[in-house]
Amino acid sequence: MENIKAQLKLLNGTTLDCYTKESSTPDPKRNVIIYIARMPDEDHYIIEDATYGNQTTIHKSLISDNHLELKEGYFLAPQSLAHTWFEDFHKARIKKQQKQESLLFINNILNFYAHKDLIYSDSRYFLIPLPDSLTSGMAYLGEIPLTLGMLLELWDTEPATIDSHSDCDGKVLIIYFAGSPLSGSHAWSGICSKCNKRIKGHKEHFPSLWVPVGTYAKLYSNYLHYAHATVQELVEKLANN
Predict the structure, then answer these.
(1) Is residue 45 exposed (0-12), middle (13-18) or buried (19+ Cβ within 10 Å)?
(2) 124, 138, 163, 211: which sits with the fewest CB atoms below 10 Å from its CB?
(3) Using CA atoms, how far apart are residues 136 and 130, in angstroms rounded to an integer?
(4) Pick from 51, 46, 73, 49: which is nearest to 62 by CA?
(5) Beta carbons of 150 and 228 less than 8 angstroms apart
(6) How far apart are CA 97 and CA 229, in angstroms?
(7) What is the C-alpha to C-alpha distance for residues 173 and 162, in angstroms, rounded to an integer?
């Protein structure tokens, strides 16, 4: 049974149960299989992780130094140690996943908005974080972390997050912005709900955008660490409805 840890109250009065998030930190007590691909010389092993097939080179002494037992063509290593050896591959994989997630998010954002009732009904969809590349940020003040549900709720309740598209008289839903609260220099990026084009622009007065969004974000700042679905999982959910 899932562990309910808190309740999140939306602006429309709906109360959502929030769940604990599974830890993504490598478990030092969990062992993973590491294959020995070959020995390029007498002092090194080229090792391969069993999950992704990535290969890297380590010195033979790391086996004995970490008290690992070498078997026939493989050995078991703590997950945390394996994570360190394959860290560059892990970072590259995360970067690729984030790029794919950003594209998937943008391509489906209007579909998400059309099914906002579903997102407003489940904290795991409401709390899906915006991809890093779509996170609003302020010079001197830092990022303004938003989730998918927060973005939809802002569009429903905060007029400053909506702009107009003169080419088609459509409504532009602002997804993120960046700028300086001191100089007022800024830009926002959004999508037109009528023609589905990506639109960029700026407000006449930047505080009219960042102040209400920043104030609103504080309402949910204590809930961002709870469990959430992925963008892919939501896309699949909607496809199967």
Answers:
(1) buried
(2) 211
(3) 9
(4) 46
(5) no
(6) 15
(7) 5
239 CA to centre of own chain = 21
Tell me the C-alpha distance between 204 and 237, whole Å.
39
Q: Across the strands, what pairs with 57?
A: 46
pLDDT at site 5: 84
Token pair in block for residue 164: 């107009």
| Domain range annotation of the chain | 31-90, 101-240
Read off the pLDDT of each residue in 87-106 and give the average, rounded to a whole number.
88
Strands (E), the chain: 4-9, 15-19, 31-41, 44-49, 55-59, 74-78, 136-138, 142-144, 162-165, 170-179, 186-192, 198-201
pLDDT, tens digit, 9 for 90 and up, residues 170-186? 999 999 999 999 999 99
Asked whether the beta carbons of 142 and 184 are under 8 A apart, the reply is no
Name beta bridge partners: 59. Answer: 44
d(CA 94, CA 148): 20
- Spell out the residues 6+ positions from residue 71 whose beta carbon is closer than 8 angstroms to its own: none
